[in-house]
Design brief:
The protein is α/β, with parallel strands linked by helices. The chain has helices spanning 21-33, 47-58, 69-80, 101-109, 145-154, 173-185, 216-228, 252-257, 299-309, 328-338, 372-378, 403-409, and strands spanning 2-6, 12-16, 62-64, 86-90, 113-116, 125-128, 135-140, 162-167, 190-194, 197-200, 235-241, 261-265, 274-280, 288-291, 313-316, 344-346, 350-353, 365-366, 389-391, 413-415. The strands form 5 sheets. A 4-stranded mixed sheet has the order 18-19-1-20, with helices on one face. Strands 2-11-13-12 form a 4-stranded mixed sheet. It has a 4-stranded mixed sheet with strand order 3-4-6-5, covered by helices on one side.
């Protein structure tokens, strides 16, 4: 499938964003560890959450989590403490090439029984659940925060709890804090006790009702549209976000203020979902430098947005982009060149655009590499680039299944 995208002349719409995938997946693991009694409310309907719901409901001998990286990490930890059960955890061909050895080694050091079905260091995994002792564990802090969150989530189920010491540079700290915040909502005693150490007490989760906030990552694409739109009368209203959100990607509102998008909240009551209104300020920086080490999922949004706006950039902290659904650094360089923008990679952790252009392709067709964020981030470029086409647009179901419906609602024309 392919969509040819034409942006509307006026952007004025109210959008109900999807629920947060990150919060949903954390809450579901806690729901399972507390006995599957009260399902969290407002769960995400994306693929990554659906595979966890299906796995927890059916618990087949072989659990296929498809392309859901979060599900692979979280379910690996969960199945390790599911006493008396044996399961094989597998996924797509791409998932079988995404590393998981660091998490497996960490769980094994806690006593977990995990073996590789195929290549060492990668899924599929055969996991025999048992009661684990817990205690002190050291792992590098510069790995995917999903490894760290997976370990923290099972901490209350360990006999001695968990003291997790993170060595070296700690990246994606907001995602770790988000995990702790969700755990607290279920009565867990889990805290930073030092700048690099988290302690989780061996106290079982409490069964509590829980409402999931909508997704700031999804909001980022509407911010991008607002930045790329050239109509000062445009306005977008996003429903279900909160001021003071624990979602790391809520920082999108601050970064986009540098590109001329202003944010206002209908209510600023902490923890209360409200409507956020986006408008254009007409003012932006001539060049953007930013370290995405804590919010790597926003990188594609800003790479596309800045280049198409003509704003040179130097983005750091991108090391984890190489082990996502695709090598996002390489994918961005390749696809932006099709549009006439020449990006440079800096030591595998940086992307730089100094304004250099090249001749764009005659057919402006963006490949998505089975990566939802490629489609999500490139579609708004249609405000400035006529004739933009997106291959395999259905990949957005991984995190934002209603994206194309929402774009149509906002006046976009999508031709197959």
């Amino acid at each position: 499938m392919q969509y040819k995208i034409k942006a509307p002349g006026l952007l004025n719409q109210t959008i109900k964003l999807p629920a947060s995938k990150s919060i949903s997946n954390r809450a579901l693991i806690i729901y399972a560890l507390s006995g599957c009694k009260v399902l969290p409310d407002n769960l995400s309907d994306c693929d990554d959450t659906e595979v966890i719901i299906r796995a927890l409901r059916d618990m087949p001998d072989e659990i296929d989590i498809m392309a859901a990286g979060t599900a692979m990490r979280f379910m690996t930890a969960y199945l390790s403490v599911l006493d008396g059960h044996c399961h094989t955890l597998t996924g797509t061909e791409r998932m079988k090439h995404r590393p998981i050895e660091l998490l497996v080694n960490a769980l094994r050091s806690l006593g977990a029984d995990i073996e590789y079905v195929g290549k060492t260091g990668f899924p599929p995994l055969r996991i025999r659940g048992q009661k684990l002792e817990g205690g002190l564990l050291e792992i590098p802090g510069n790995v995917s925060s999903q490894y760290i969150s997976a370990l923290l989530l099972i901490g209350p189920a360990l006999k001695k709890g968990l003291t997790l010491r993170l060595t070296g540079v700690i990246i994606s700290r907001p995602y770790i804090d988000l995990t702790l915040s969700v755990m607290h909502q279920f009565g867990s005693e889990a805290e930073w006790i030092d700048i690099d150490t988290i302690e989780v007490k061996p106290k079982p989760y409490e069964v509590r009702p829980y409402f999931i906030e909508n997704d700031w990552s999804a909001a980022s694409y509407w911010y991008e549209m607002m930045a790329l739109s050239q109509n000062m009368d445009d306005e977008v209203r996003l429903v279900g976000l909160t001021d003071g959100s624990r979602q790391g990607d809520s920082s999108v509102r601050y970064i986009f203020s540098l590109l001329g998008v202003k944010t206002s909240f209908e209510s600023t009551e902490p923890g209360k979902p409200t409507t956020v209104t986006l408008r254009r300020s007409g003012k932006g920086v001539p060049r953007l430098e930013y370290d995405f080490v804590n919010v790597p999922d926003l990188a594609q949004t800003f790479v596309v947005c800045c280049a198409v706006m003509g704003v040179p950039f130097h983005f750091r902290g991108l090391s984890t982009l190489k082990i996502k659904e695709t090598d996002r650094i390489r994918a961005l360089i390749t696809e932006m060149r099709k549009l006439g923008y020449v990006l440079r990679e800096g030591d595998g952790t940086e992307l730089i655009w100094d304004g250099k252009r090249c001749e764009p392709d005659s057919e402006l067709v963006i490949d998505t590499y089975e990566d939802h964020r490629m489609a999500l981030a490139f579609a708004p470029a249609s405000f400035r680039i006529e004739g933009l086409k997106i291959n395999n647009p259905q990949v957005v179901s991984k995190s934002y299944p209603r994206y194309w419906d929402d774009l149509r609602q906002a006046g976009f024309v999508l031709e197959e």
